[in-house]
Amino acid sequence: MSDTIKDTIECIVGNLLKDYKDDRTINKIELFNQPDKVRIREILDKLMKIIYPGFFNDKRYRFYNMDSRLTTLMEDVMYNLNKQVSIALTQLPQHQGKRPYMVEEEAQFICIKFFEKLPKIREYTETDVLAAYDGDPAAYNTNEIILSYPGLMAITTNRIAHELYELGVPLIPRIMTEHAHSLTGIDINPGATIGKYFFIDHGTGIVIGETTIIGENVKIYQGVTLGALSTRGGQTLKTVKRHPTIEDNVTIYSGASILGGETVIGENCVIGSNAFITQSITPGTRVTIKNQELIYKHGKHEELQLQNLDTDEGWFYVI
Hints:
Elements: H1 3-19, H2 37-51, H3 66-89, H4 100-116, H5 118-135, H6 142-148, H7 150-166, H8 172-184, E1 187-188, E2 193-194, E3 199-201, E4 207-208, E5 213-214, E6 219-221, E7 225-227, E8 245-246, E9 251-252, E10 257-259, E11 264-265, E12 270-271, E13 276-277, E14 286-287, E15 294-298, E16 302-308, E17 315-318
Parallel strand pairs: 1-4, 2-5, 3-6, 4-7, 5-8, 6-9, 7-10, 8-11, 9-12, 10-13, 12-14
Antiparallel strand pairs: 15-16, 16-17
């Protein structure tokens, strides 16, 4: 390294160290008081192996039977999750200033409660796999869905993260769902409550907000937003229901936006592509957007105009 480069680096380091000394949010230097994102991703990976035992093998270990494999995984996840939850709990006001052993005891209690929820998580994910297979004629078999469908990965991650969210664990649930978001393009807040037989088809660009409630047998296509009408209130809206409720047996097609905490989409509704909905829809309703006029230009001057002539045959080209 040349003296010029060395002097430049020393100068930059000196300036940065001075810059770190103010009280800006980004200057918090608490290396051991933040959850480790890498460890949380590893925990999530191992939980996937527990939920889908025959699909995601760990090449680092060799097991003679399922008992030894599951025991090893459980002990590994329990130890590491307990450690990360202990760190995360110190972010909560009620745990700040507590003695470390008290926080660790609370973390252990939470982890035990979470592991007791694993049979429920597996019950729900089984229905999600079946919903995907029944709802997608392109699916070869359920193995393909488990191994390759991004929608199922995002849903399973949400089901794991949601249980931790319900147990009052900060940060970790969001780290999990944002990891799935980065891999799949599907953004499901861990606070969202989702019923059985949930199917996301294609998935890219889907956003499901924190206070969303989704019933059973709901199918959502790519680009759907279940969001808030406005977030201008910021933190004052933290405890307010800001996102819609979707009742049972609803299908929402691509590009639709359904907004607002008081908005309820009744059971058996079908929401067409690109619909923009900010009020409740009664059960059994089909919502569609009337096609806009399309202009087709052929050659230099000839214009083809697509018009709706209100006939049984629908749309015609008119020259």
